[in-house]
Amino acid sequence: MDQAMHFNQSMEENGTTVSRDLTAQTSWVQSLEDTYFRVRPGFSGAFVGTGCFGIIGNILILIVFTKMGFSNTIHMSYSALAVSDLCCVLASMVYGNTAMDVVRRSVNEQTSYRLSNMFGGLPHLCFSRVTALLTAWISLERCLCVKFPTRVKLMITSTVTKVVILAIFLLGCLPMVFVYIAYRFEWQPDPRTNSSTLNLVYDERLGVAETFLILLGVVYPVVSWVTVTFCTSVLVLQLRQSYKWRKSNTQGAEVSPAGNHAVTANQSQQQKSTKENHVTKVVVMVAVVFLLCSVPVSANILADLIIPEYSIDGTLRYLNLINGMINVLFTELNSSLNVVVFSVSGQKFRSVLFEILSKGPCKK
Questions:
Q1: Core-most of 5, 121, 154, 195, by most CB within 10 Å?
Q2: CATH for 300
Q3: pLDDT tens, 72-128?
Q4: How many domains does the chain contain in total?
């Protein structure tokens, strides 16, 4: 009898513990939901504000590089990066507006969420991956130019650069088309209003959409991040070696009794090295900004892979949504700050930009 009483008491304690755990979990989920709805308008406003700056900045980048010309292949890559950044910023602003319940007045919550993803979230995701792949290409191109300067000029021509840029845009945007195929509008009965409403429905039977989402969510970010990290490390080491070489040559020129021809050749080589280093510094700065802004995205992808409940349908749904808005904001910052990077690091870009801003684009 004592054992039975002890067993019943143990069961009651276990039931109380489970009940407390469920209550604590429900309370925590509710607090995440409340936090999400409180911070969502602030994030939406940040998307629009940052987007306005990004639109102006990327348009200025396109104007400046068009005026500088495209004889240098890296100018083509920078211009393509500005186009991708511009599309990414515009998609972020659309995502921000739909997140502010602009369309929810005429459709239900589920359709509003899907419209937000379809016209804002998904294009933003695709063009952010295009930006990442273009950044990886720019870093790789510059890394090859530093290591193999004579061979690369013959390999990476204007035609090759155009083909690579076109391929990157196709690889980034093609998944968006296949995901769109899985969406369709259909009329569904609404018992509350005793009428039919037009809803956006996702067809889960088309598994091809999930396959392409894996490309956007895992493959493209990992490939671009690894490439940019490796190439940036090589470029930083090259800059340090170049700095030591210039310093030793400058000291040698001060004490060397060599003739004018030797001094002139040395100065010409130093000027060429300085010019190449300026280009490398710009690429490194663009890559560093990309890496810093991609840290939240990488952490979110890792959490999505190792935590089953961290998904749009799991118990950590609202935490996933909050971190998703943080990812969008950081990606938008990456797409908006390049005009600042070019202005600070690129001397020629800065002079052309100041000339355009002082005289105006319509004045000669």
A1: 121
A2: 1.20.1070.10
A3: 899 999 999 999 999 999 998 887 766 555 445 555 666 666 777 778 888 888 999
A4: 1
Banded pLDDT at 18 (limits 50, 70, 90): very low
Question: Could you identify the residue written with the tokens 């290409």?
Answer: 137
Residue 313: CB atoms within 10 Å: 7
Answer yes or no: is 16 within a domain. Answer: no
Flag whether the pTM goes above 0.85: no
Helix (H, G, I), strand (E, B) or coil at 106: coil
Percent of the chain whose predicted confidence (pLDDT) is above 70: 71
- Residue 343 main-chain phi, psi, to 5 deg: -70, -35
Specify whether the backbone of 97 is left (phi greater than 0), alpha (psi in -120 to 50) or beta: alpha
d(CA 90, CA 115): 15
How many CB atoms neighbour CB 203 within 10 A? 10
Task: Provide the pLDDT for residue 163.
Answer: 96
**Do you know the residue count of the chain?**
364
Tokens 């904001």 label which residue?
Answer: 329
Residue-range definition of the domain harbouring residue 255: 28-359
Contact 227, 140 (CB under 8 A): yes
Q: How far apart are the first and last CA of the chain?
A: 102
Residue 17 counted as domain residue: no
